[in-house]
Amino acid sequence: MALKIYGVARSRAFRSLWMAGELGLDYEHIKVDFATETRSPAHLALNPNGHVPVIDDGGFVLWESMAINLYLAKKYSAGKLYPAGLEDEARAWQWSFWGMTEIERPLLTALLNRAVYPENQRDAAAADGAEKALAQPLGVLDGALARAANLLGDNFTVADLNVASILAWARPAQIDTSAFPRVAEWLKNCAERPAARAARQLQRE
Ligand SMILES: N[C@@H](CCC(=O)N[C@@H](CS)C(=O)NCC(=O)O)C(=O)O
User: Fold this and answer.
1) Is pLDDT of 5 > 90?
2) What are phi and psi of 63, to 5 degrees?
3) Does residue 203 have its Cβ closer than 6 Å to ligand 1?
């Protein structure tokens, strides 16, 4: 198998496993545990940051979940999941950077303090503050979705997958999206795609 994906599905590797599923790729899943295995010499040789996901595509090693998904979509689905035109390509980058810089941190803060940390170590105020901070970018996303069903138009693309795969934390983080009905509807549609369901199934294994 040419493609290897490193990282358990309960990590940000979920994003790349979802993408690989959308693309129908045959891949080897190497279930590197983010809590115990990412700092081993073998893993650091792949990703000196000590993180997952990482891919090895026939000897080409790449890390950073958004970059991995943009690369896979462009290589295996140009003109479909990866947009054909220069401007839409730039918009896919725009939304991917936006997801990482505008929503990932507050989502993670809420997730850790509402669902991941042991109950006696959770900071409810930090989680509430993070949810409050999310209102502004979620409003931006809701506004974008007023123009079309998906971020680049009618069709689901890598832009939707990348942002929705970050926002997959919203549910376990108990983020109330009712003030952003278009976001809620779009996120539901993204999450119900067969490849998204299959990637969530991998999280239960
Ligand atoms: N910006 C990176 C973040 C990757 C990251 O922090 N992954 C976590 C798991 S979700 C990890 O590997 N943590 C283990 C560690 O840092 O040792 C990406 O999106 O790929």
Assistant:
1) yes
2) -125, 170
3) no
- The token duo for 89 is 């390509």
Q: Is the CB of 177 under 6 A from ligand 1?
A: no
Q: What are phi and psi of 46, to 5 degrees?
A: -85, -45
CB-hemisphere CA count at 13 Å for 14?
25
Confidence of residue 119 (pLDDT cuts 50, 70, 90): very high
29 has which bridge partners? 5
**What pLDDT sits at residue 1?**
62
Assess whether the C-beta atom of 51 lies below 6 angstroms from ligand 1. yes
**Average pLDDT of the segment spanning 103-123:** 98
> Quick one: tokens of 146?
């007023």
Q: How far is CA 195 from the centre of its chain?
A: 13
Beta bridge partners of 153: 150
Helix/strand/coil for 61 = strand
pTM of this structure = 0.98
Measure 194 CA to ligand 1 centroid, in angstroms.
Answer: 25
Give the Cβ contact number of residue 123 at 10 Å.
14
